[in-house]
Write a structure and sequence with these properties.
With about 350 residues, the chain is of the alpha+beta class. The protein has helices spanning about 5-20, 35-45, 50-60, 65-70, 75-80, 85-105, 110-115, 125-135, 145-150, 160-175, 180-195, 215, 275-285, 330-340, and strands at about 235-245, 250-255, 265, 265-270, 290-300, 305-315, 325-330. The chain contains 14 helices and seven strands. Strands 1, 2, 3, 4, 5, 6 and 7 form a seven-stranded mixed beta sheet that branches.
């Protein structure tokens, strides 16, 4: 049987041939641009390519380089990221952009270790930037690549362990062709994204590595990769209140730390409240409720938390000035353009503009 090292070296030629013939046309692949690679890789974490495309194009149009990202206002930055979730990622991008401005003259460094030192950039993202944009022969091992390698090598280890990822990076480093490191890494990612996919839709017949794959030879493709079970999510009951003053919508900015930090939201209360409890909470703001109606229930899943939401819409009298210390009342059209509101509230967004009869 071939050694792991031999399998990885032998896969380069058929993998690159397949990639040249089958790679998708993606806006961040059009040129070797380190900034484009960085932005796309952060956006693509846990998000599908087709979903990312319009977000990427919008982001690049408004923030075309490191300097623009470094100087962008927080509200605008979060608005550009709205819908992608995981907002700390774009905050870390901005912190890294400011590091690059200060230490590297606004250009992402052509050095793997220097890239790893930037905020929010780990071994995978650094490897992608270094290999794709700068032709440096270093691996870029993400979930797709780990799945391909686990099956190819029939590796039984838990791919969620950092030690397993580190081991795969070490093996790949010796196998990367020095003349096409970026294409090699992208080919592995592409293979995991469209052919060697999670169980249920695997396309072994289309795989350029099927003759080398140990899991295919032993009929164990669907058994791999191995993953430890994740901890169950914490379920939280929330009551969402869409407060309307005429044509204006009440929004509150969340704290600077924690879940959905610094984003805007409608009234968000702990627990599932009844109408009279909601009216009391609204009155406690110094508002005079006129009408209330219950909205549909909704659910939103974060990585470790699940919100089960009960909704209400409340029409109030003209707003007193003292309420504005906590809430702002904005035109719904402006809320869509200027205020970053997380997708957790998408189920109630249709009530931003809808007046109560």
């Amino acid at each position: 049987m071939k050694t792991e090292e031999k399998i990885l070296k032998d896969m380069a030629k058929p993998l690159l041939l397949w990639y040249d013939q089958n790679k998708r046309s993606l806006p961040w692949r059009d040129q070797a641009n380190a900034y484009y690679t960085w932005v796309s890789e952060i956006m693509l974490r846990q998000t599908r390519v087709e979903t990312v495309k319009p977000y990427f194009l919008r982001f690049i149009r408004e923030l075309p380089d490191v300097g623009a990202l470094a100087s962008c206002s927080e509200d605008r930055l979060l608005k550009l990221w709205e819908g992608l979730g995981y907002y700390n990622r774009v905050r870390n991008m901005q912190k890294a952009a400011r590091q690059v401005q200060e230490s590297y003259g606004g250009v992402l460094p052509k050095d793997y270790q220097a890239l790893c030192s930037l905020r929010g950039i780990g071994s995978y993202t650094a490897g992608a930037i270094a290999s794709i944009a700068y032709g440096i022969p270093v691996p870029a091992v993400d979930g797709n690549v780990l799945r391909v390698l686990s099956r190819l090598l029939e590796n039984e280890e838990d791919i969620l362990k950092q030690s397993v990822k580190t081991g795969m990076e070490r093996l790949l480093k010796e196998a990367i062709p020095k003349d096409r490191p970026g294409d090699f890494n992208q080919a592995l990612m592409e293979l995991g994204a469209v052919v060697c996919v999670p169980s249920g839709r695997i396309e072994c017949g289309s795989c350029p590595l099927n003759d080398l794959c140990r899991a295919r030879a032993s009929g164990r493709v669907t058994e791999l990769p191995k993953k430890s079970e994740k901890k169950p999510r914490t379920v939280q009951k929330r009551t969402i209140v869409v407060i309307r003053d005429g044509d204006c919508l009440a929004l509150c900015k969340r704290p600077k730390e924690g879940l959905l930090a610094s984003l805007y939201e409608p009234m968000n209360l702990t627990g599932h409240l009844q109408e009279q409890e909601v009216l009391k909470e609204v009155a406690n703001l110094g508002l005079v409720p006129l009408r209330i109606r219950q909205l549909e229930d909704a659910k939103h899943i974060f990585s470790h938390v699940e919100w089960r939401m009960k909704g209400y819409q409340v029409q109030v009298e003209a707003v007193e000035e003292k309420v504005k210390d906590r809430y702002i009342f904005v035109d719904p059209e402006k809320s869509g353009r200027f205020y970053p509101i997380p997708s957790a509230y998408d189920a109630y967004a249709k009530y931003w503009k809808e007046n109560m009869s």
